[in-house]
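Lecture 7 notes: from sequence to structure.

We start with a single chain of 236 residues. Read the sequence below before looking at the structure.
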Amino acid sequence: MMRRIGILGGTFDPIHWGHLEAGLAAETALDLTQMLVITASVPPHRPQPVTSSYHRFAMVAMAVAGRAGWRATDLELRDDARSYTSRTLQKFHERGYGPSELFFVIGSDAFADIASWKDYPSIAGASHFVVVARPGFPTRDLPHRLPELAKRMARPPLEPAALDEPLILLLDAPTANVSSTAIRDRCARGESIAGLVPDGVRQHIEQHGLYASMPPRRRASDARRGTAAGGLHGQD
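Now the structure, written as tokens:
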């Protein structure tokens, strides 16, 4: 049986239910055999993370604990170079994974900017891209926004043979209307984030006082920037 490896990447500052629900939707729709959650090191098109790689990876590990087939990986954190999706996928190829075995999970808002990513358009053939709808960004708009990729877009369920070559797989599963920026802002205001992140992540944030002392100027800058291009590390 062919391996179906899900890849869910992001800065995860912090990881939240929107990230996890996107991964769960992909896992369910495509019968993925494993989900690797990769914490970005140095995002190329975003403000630098507020918290350290240690805390961001720790929160990811807590978020996936107990989920069968899910694993937090420090693949990006071992590399001091900027974290580009094309380089990450190349690392998987070097380890013997074929493009059709990889399922890169990403929100529709971030994928809409794929034309600005490093190594576009060749990156579109480096793996399957599982594009999950985000609030305000329905997948039905993507063929019009990315007409050059429209012929490669498909919607599960698909016959196994249809996945022999990398596709752009569109999913309309609901995901939580939450962002890392909003969570950081709530923490800075002393407001509860219960229900926005897994309990273990919430406890870690509260125990270590993460985001509680973010300067207002940085919070405003984050809010203006929102989700940036870059692929793996553009997911807020």
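The domain at 5-178 is CATH 3.40.50.620 (Rossmann fold). Keep this in mind for problem set 3.
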